[in-house]
Amino acid sequence: MIMFDSENAPAESDRQPIPASDIDMALTSQLVVAWAGETGEEGRLGWWRSDLVSEYGGEDLFRRLLPSTWRWAVLQGAREAARTVDADVRRQDHDPDRLVSLFSLGFELDERIEERFQDLKRSSRLPEEALPGLAIVSDGWDRDRFWDWVAGHGAPDGTATPVGRRLKGSPPIALDQLVRKLIAGLAPKSERYPLPHFRRTP
Question: Among 150, 144, 143, which Cα is nearest to 42's?
Answer without folding.
Answer: 143
